[in-house]
Design a protein that fits this description.
Number of strands of chain B: 19
Number of strands of chain A: 10
Shape of chain B: globular
Radius of gyration of chain B: 22 Å
Strand order of the largest sheet of chain A: 1-8-9-10
Radius of gyration of chain A: 20 Å
Order of helices and strands of chain A: EEHHEEEHEHEHEEEHHH
CATH class of chain A: Alpha Beta
Number of domains of chain A: 1
Largest sheet of chain B: 5 strands, parallel
Strand content of chain B: 15-25%
Number of helices of chain B: 16
Oligomer: heterodimer
CATH architecture of chain A: Alpha-Beta Barrel
Structural class of chain B: alpha/beta
CATH topology of chain A: Aconitase, domain 4
Helix content of chain A: 25-40%
Structural class of chain A: alpha/beta
Strand order of the largest sheet of chain B: 5-4-3-6-7
Distance between the termini of chain B: 51 Å
CATH superfamily of chain A: Aconitase, domain 4
Number of helices of chain A: 8
């Protein structure tokens, strides 16, 4: 996983609440067995009509075609657990999503892919959306180590993040590796549990 | 985890699965059952392969194909190439990693959230995960069950654990008895209408109250299934005799003396008297009428007796704009009576409402009636076992003689990953769980409702109050 440290980039405003994962990546694009290549289908129905780009959609306009930050409204990423949603965002180039709140599973999935989800109050998001609407000269900076978003005018806005997740993200660490450092503990726990619940049969298909 | 503080059902399951706890409160949580399907697992198995890792507990894992499989005759294979590749990839992966698997043509095949409880794989007190948000369904047996992404699927395959922080406790009590014709689907739609699509974010919801206790297991599964549509990852119902009677004799459940020992443990799971919840919501069952969604998220729901809402009556500008967008997408006019909206398609099935009880409820309305002219109506049983049972009861004949299509098990038109989808502009009365834009096919319009209400729509040709047909 690519570490996330500091990002200075164009931010795309998407002032919409309840952006669901079907909207981020419709189910018909989930038939892939890879993680890559989904960026072209990101926001498919908002982005294209009859195979042509909809000029009014933000990611079809300059400079937002090169956006690496996305700012939205409440409950971003609700719906399905599909990790194809963060994969599609990442493949398009989005490394950070800012919103008042996120759906739990999407929020989790972001961290597994080096995407930083930042929770900020609605009024702050709206302010950042206004900044973003100024276009290419109004870049935002997101500094994970210092936990701040820097507005184009230099104002710094702090955000909260889970310390463990911050550590993994800053260092690009694979959390399976982290967990396997505790393999002995898992072995011992599992053995005790098996003894305690000896009534539980294994899942076995003939 | 002794201590004297009274604990909730969720607290007890959580505490009994914590392998390790880090400084910031992140826990290594042990997972008892992992259900795997073809859409969210290929990249996870690929990750294991690249890292040279094995599946730690094949005997706690079950794989099945459901999301993209066709629901017509499947003996000649899957025609759509990408779907076929995904299914073949899963079959290669389960063979390579030794994971138990129900193949497409076996009677045990079905929607992953139908087969877990049906086979006795999902049991009370367990932690259960699957790369699918509707894993919350399994909470109906009194388990902590939630959906995960593909990276977490890989994490569970490799370690049988997840890194998690505990959720907050929320209790939704549905008191009293529901009126005639009111089903679990109406109850859960009413709950979502009340608390909203993000109302449960960060929480696990325990459903309590006389109306929940009075539901059969299928009904409890419907309620828990749609918990994710209220933003909560997991919903659960305390196990009781209804639960134990349901589990007894299921193929993968403990049997004989082992079953008795299991029940003794399961009886310790319900919340202690005085256990605290971070949030409590109460609904009166008698106040809940048959419900139907009118918009493009599940909180956009109203009683069937209502009318399409008017955006002008909404003060907040953003909310008004969202409502306009929803009505435009749905092709509806403010003030229009919901019970007069014509439908093109009726879909009965999905992990929400694809069980035998759901098919019986639909057939009871359809018996002696015919599907209205111009309406395409399909029933997709949730599993091969459900299909066989329905056929043994003659329900397939009731439905097909009325003009319904009777199909093979799978997710089907709930998410339109297989050939069963809506065409642009088509309007569907659907027993599934999501009415998002394009969910059932690009441009398709979805109204969520109960199986009995779906059957009523099929025979009348429009959304209808089932109480007038029963």
């Amino acid at each position: 996983m690519q570490p996330f440290t500091t990002l200075t980039a164009v931010a795309a405003p998407l002032p919409v609440a309840n952006v669901d994962t079907d909207k981020i990546i419709p189910a018909r694009f989930l038939k892939t067995i890879k993680r890559t290549g989904l960026g072209v289908h990101l926001f498919d129905t908002l982005r294209y009509r009859d195979g042509e780009e909809r000029p009014e959609f933000v990611l079809n306009r300059e400079p937002y075609r090169h956006a690496e930050i996305l700012i939205a409204h409440e409950n971003f990423g609700c719906g399905s657990s599909r990790e194809h949603a963060p994969w599609a965002l990442l493949d398009f180039g989005i490394r950070c999503v800012i919103a008042p709140d996120f759906a739990d599973i999407f929020h989790n999935n972001c961290f597994k892919n080096g995407i930083l989800p930042v929770r900020l109050p609605r009024a702050v998001c709206d302010q950042l959306i206004e900044d973003a609407q100024l276009g290419g000269n109004a870049r935002l900076t997101v500094d994970l180590a210092r936990q701040v978003v820097v507005r184009p005018n230099g104002e710094e806005i702090g955000f909260d993040i889970d310390p463990f997740r911050k550590h993994l993200l800053l260092n690009g660490l694979d959390d399976i590796g982290q967990t396997l450092q505790r393999a002995e503990r898992i072995d011992a726990w599992e053995a005790a549990k098996r003894a305690e619940q000896s009534w539980l049969p294994p899942v076995k298909v003939a | 985890m002794s201590g004297t503080k009274p604990r909730t059902l969720f607290d007890k399951i959580w505490d009994s699965h914590v392998v390790d706890r880090m400084e910031d409160g992140t826990c290594v949580l042990y997972i008892d059952r992992h259900l795997v399907h073809e859409v969210t697992s290929p990249q996870a198995f690929e990750g294991l392969r690249l890292a040279g890792r094995r599946v730690r507990r094949p005997d706690a894992t079950i794989a099945v194909v459901d999301h993209n499989v066709p629901t017509d005759d499947r003996r000649s294979g899957i025609k759509e190439e990408e779907s076929r590749i995904q299914v073949e990839t899963l079959e290669r992966n389960v063979a390579e990693f030794g994971v138990p698997y129900f193949p497409l043509l076996s009677p045990q095949q079905g929607i992953v959230h139908i087969i877990g409880p049906e086979q006795g794989i999902s049991l009370p007190g367990m932690t259960i995960v699957c790369g699918d948000s509707h894993t919350s369904t399994h909470g109906a047996v009194g388990a902590l069950a939630f959906g995960i992404g593909t990276s977490e699927v890989e994490h569970v395959l490799a370690t049988q654990t997840l890194l998690q922080k505990p959720a907050k406790n929320m209790r939704v009590a549905v008191e009293g008895r529901p009126g005639p014709g009111i089903t679990a689907k109406d109850i859960v739609l009413a709950i979502i209408g009340r608390i909203g699509t993000a109302g449960g974010t960060g929480h696990v919801i325990e459903y309590t109250g006389e109306a929940i206790r009075g539901l059969d297991m299928a009904g409890r599964m419907t309620v828990c299934n749609m918990t994710i549509e209220a933003g909560a990852r997991a919903g659960l119902v305390a196990p009781d005799d209804t639960t134990f009677d349901y589990i007894k004799g299921r193929p993968f459940a403990p049997a004989g003396e082992a079953f008795e020992r299991a029940v003794a443990y399961w009886r310790t799971l319900p919340a202690d008297p005085g256990a605290q919840y971070d949030r409590e919501v109460t609904l009166q069952a008698a106040d809940i009428p048959p419900m139907v969604t009118w918009g493009t998220n599940p909180e956009a729901v109203l009683p069937i007796t209502g009318r399409v809402p008017d955006p002008q009556a909404v003060a907040d500008e953003a909310a008004q704009a969202q409502m306009r967008r929803m009505l435009d997408y749905m092709g509806l006019t403010p003030g229009q009576k919901l019970a007069e909206i014509p439908v093109d398609v009726v879909f009965i099935g999905s992990c929400t409402n694809g069980r035998i009880e759901d098919i019986r409820a639909a057939a009871a309305i359809v018996r002696g009636r015919r599907v209205a002219p111009g309406v395409r109506a399909l029933v997709v049983p949730g599993s091969g076992v459900v299909k066989q049972q329905a056929e043994a009861e003659g329900l397939d004949r009731v439905l097909t003689e009325a003009g319904f299509e009777w199909r093979e098990a799978g997710c089907s038109m709930c998410l339109g990953m297989n050939p069963d989808k809506l065409t642009p502009g088509q309007r569907c009365a659907s027993t599934s769980n999501r009415n998002f834009e394009g969910r059932q096919g690009p441009g398709g319009r979805t109204h969520l409702l109960s199986p009995a209400m779906a059957a009523a729509a099929a025979v009348t040709g429009h959304l209808a109050d089932v109480r007038e047909l029963a």
